[in-house]
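Chain A, query sequence.
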Amino acid sequence: MTTRDLAPDAVGLGLRRALLGPLSAATPGQVDFLEVAPENWIGVGGSLGEQFSALASRYPIVCHGLSLSLGGPTPLDETFLIRIRRFLDAHRCAIYSEHLSACSDEQGHLYDLMPLPFNRAAVEHVAARIRQTQDLLGRPVAVENISYYATLEAGPGAMREIDFINEVLERADCHLLLDVNNIIVNATNHGYDAHEFLRALPGDRVSYIHVAGHYDEADDLKVDTHGAAVSDPVWSLLGEAYRLFGPRPTLLERDFNLPPFDELLGELDTVRTAVARHRQGNRRVA
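Chain A, predicted structure.
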C-alpha cells in the first residue's frame, strides 16, 4: 500500500485526545499532517476509534513510537512490530520514527527515555536492532535525537554524542527525526554549541523535524517538557536547519498545558514563516 507522502513545507501537530474536536473542525490548510503514537491507538474502538479513523482519512499520518526500546537489552518484541506494521499499512503512514534510547530493561518498561552510552559497542547494538526493525516493518525507520540529563559511563570506545548519532545513522542506514528543541536542551545542559552540533548532522538523512517548548529551570538547566510555547532559541535553530538542509516536514509537539487551538495554529504559522523566509533568502542569493 502506498503512503501519503508529505511536502517539504508541511506543518503538523501531535494528536492528543483533547485535539480530536478542534482538528475535526479545522479548515483545510490549517494543519497539514498529524503525528500519532501507535501504542495509543492500536485496537482503540468505539467513538474514539471512529474519530481517529475519520482524522486518519483526512490528514496524512506519521507515527512516533514510545515503547520499542531500540537501545534496550532485551530482544525486540517482534509480535508488537507486526502489529505496528499493520497499523502503518492500514493508515498509509508516511513515516515511522522511534527514540534513539532505551525505555525498558529485563524487569520491564521504565516509562522514561534513557540515554545510551556513547561508545562503539552501543553503536553496534542499537544499529543492529534498527536494521532488524526496518526488516520487520518493511520500511525505513527514523530515529530521534533525545534529550538527556546525565551521561552513562562510556568506557572503551567512548565517543562524542554527535559522532555516536552519526555512526548509528550510517551503520543502521536509517533516517533521522531531527528534534531541534532537544539540541537546544542538551547544548545548554551539557555545555556544547547547538549550531555546531546541527551543522555536523547528515542533512540527507533528515526525514522530518520536531519543535517543542521546554522549561528553564536555571540558566544552565533546561527541561524538555513539551508543555510550553516554542522558545526563541528553538525557532532560531529551526531556521538554521532550513538554511542547512532545506525545508522538511515540521511537527509541533505539545503534550500538556494545551493552549487554545488558535495559539497552536499560530505556532504552525511561525513554522510557515520560517520556510517562507528561507525561500526568500534563496531567491535573493540566486
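The chain has one domain: 11-285. The CA atoms of residues 103 and 113 lie 5 Å apart.
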